[in-house]
Amino acid sequence: MAGFDKRVGTYEEAMAGIESGMTVIAGGFGLCGIPENLIAEIKRRGVTDLTVYSNNCGVDGFGLGLLLEDRQIKTIHASYVGENALFEQQMLEGDIEVVLTPQGTLAEKMRAGGAGIPAFYTATGYGTPIGEGKEVREFNGRHYILEESVVGDFAIVKGWKADRYGNVVYRDTAQNFNPLAATAGKITVVEVEEIVEPGELKPDQIHTPGIYVDRIIQGSFEKRIEKRTVHQG
């Protein structure tokens, strides 16, 4: 990786510098658009006591669920438990701290962090356990709670295509939390299906400008289906 060329050749290089106790922001929604190989590299490195911000925690044995197996996650800020029995078990047994966060609030925490905004007011969660202990203000007759934004030590992101300058395009619904996560990391690492030459991606196609991206790697992906429903004929 030199100058504007953000490419790295191995996942070991891609996640160089991650340490125990760090905060990781992960893109993806369910199993859609998750940085599965970057997560696997975190698993391989064996770092622990991680604080993770993600919509959910993968499934048993895949995605962020891999990091639960060796209890590498200390705290996770997520919107729901999902299809993950180990996640549910560890939460109920107190082995992991789970901070359940409304999806819109979680998204705004990432966006605001990337924009340099330290906190924001939202009506979501006022009068519920979500708002307990948080500052409350009234605007135009409605109550709002103060939520802090987040900036991670690492942001791990899954894209579709990118050029070597780090400009990234996401495909369809795999966009989800990824563009927000990409802006909110001190070090942002993106894995993609294809790396193209600068100029091959039209400027109006770019979802994440390369200014936000520190490292980019091309990988291959399993693309699982989280829950398959088959019509009985």
Automatic annotation (TrEMBL):
Checking SMART domains in the record gives: CoA_trans (SM00882)
Q: Which Gene3D superfamilies match?
A: Glutaconate Coenzyme A-transferase
- Which is one GO molecular function term here? CoA-transferase activity
Q: What is the lineage of its organism?
A: Bacteria, Pseudomonadati, Pseudomonadota, Gammaproteobacteria, Oceanospirillales
Report which superkingdom the organism of origin falls in.
Bacteria
Listed InterPro entries: 3-oxoacid_CoA-transf_A, CoA_trans_fam_I, NagB/RpiA_transferase-like
Q: Which key words tag this protein in UniProt?
A: Transferase
NCBIfam families linked: pcaI_scoA_fam
- What this protein is called in its record is Succinyl-CoA:3-ketoacid-coenzyme A transferase subunit A
Q: Which SUPFAM superfamilies match?
A: NagB/RpiA/CoA transferase-like (SSF100950)
